[in-house]
Amino acid sequence: MPTQSEDRDDLLSRLSRFEKQYFPRYERTYRKLVEEGQQPKTLFIGCSDSRIVPYALMDCGVGELFIARNVGNLIPPWDLSAGFHGTAAAIEFAVLKLEVHNIVICGHSHCGAIRGLFEAPPAEATHLHAWLDLARDAMRPEPPSAAAIRRTEQRSLVLQLERLMTYPMVVRRVQAGALFLHAWYYVIEEGRVLVLDAEQGAFLPHEQVGPPVDTASADALAGRAPRENDPIDLDTAHWLRRPPTA
Ligand SMILES: [Zn+2]
Question: Which DSSP category does 159 fall into?
Fold first, then answer.
């Protein structure tokens, strides 16, 4: 086990490399972003998992992504209750202040949060247990096989998308065609991202997907009966089946 001073030295040497090597290479970009302000076009909502590197996934540089991360890439419902709603605040900031054009909710394979739904939480993890309630409706009564967990990970993404559409400023902009929603499923071990195709009701390789989720694609999906091999259960996709009213 590393000692406390070894850990500290490692962290400080990383800071030193940033200051001496990384920053000088991009100094002009950083200065421009400070002078002109940030103008990211995309809000990326991802899991806190250390294997998710949004800038690498999206081939982005500094200033190009506004990022909100939490355990399980979960979206809390729009609610005006007292409390500290960090993810909701990030969504409001991105949509109302930055006026992003896209919101990407990115889930992934081998998600510890989704696996956690199938296991007893650590005794002290009160907040974690409550937080995972946001994904619990994606579960089906089945043992936690790899396939079941993968289906749950994908169904959860649809639930989060549905919950995102409870935010009034999101609905308004989606309906105005000013904001597009995307649900992605990153398969870590294969290095590829499957994209939710609203028309198919399935996560597909990005080369095969139609337009991003908007009210028109929700209309197209509404009423379509689930097919036997749908990876997601359309019964959980309430929003995709029933476009919201403003
Ligand atoms: Zn995760």
Answer: H
Mean pLDDT of all residues in 149-162: 92
Q: Quote the ligand 1 centre to 28 CA distance (angstroms).
A: 34
Alpha carbons 236 and 202: distance in angstroms, whole number: 13
Beta bridge partners of 182: 104
State the distance from the centre of ligand 1 to the C-alpha of 46, rounded, in angstroms.
8
CA of 119 to the centre of ligand 1 (A): 15
Kindly tell me if the per-residue pLDDT of 227 is higher than 80. no
- 8 A C-beta contact, residue 205 and residue 125: no
pTM value is 0.87
Give CA–CA dist 224/201, Å, rounded.
9
* Mean pLDDT, rounded, for 139-149: 89
- Is the pLDDT at 38 greater than 90? The verdict is yes
For 104, which DSSP code? E
Radius of gyration of the chain (CA): 19
CA 76/CA 232 separation, integer angstroms: 20
Decide: 71 and 130 in contact? Cβ < 8 Å: no
Residue 98: Cβ-neighbour burial (10 angstroms; 0-12, 13-18, 19+): middle
Q: Output the six-digit token pair for 174.
A: 């989606």
d(CA 145, CA 205): 23
Cα separation, 243 vs 216, whole angstroms: 9
**How far, in Å, from the CA of 31 to the mean position of ligand 1?**
34
Compare 173 and 232 and report the one with higher pLDDT.
Answer: 173
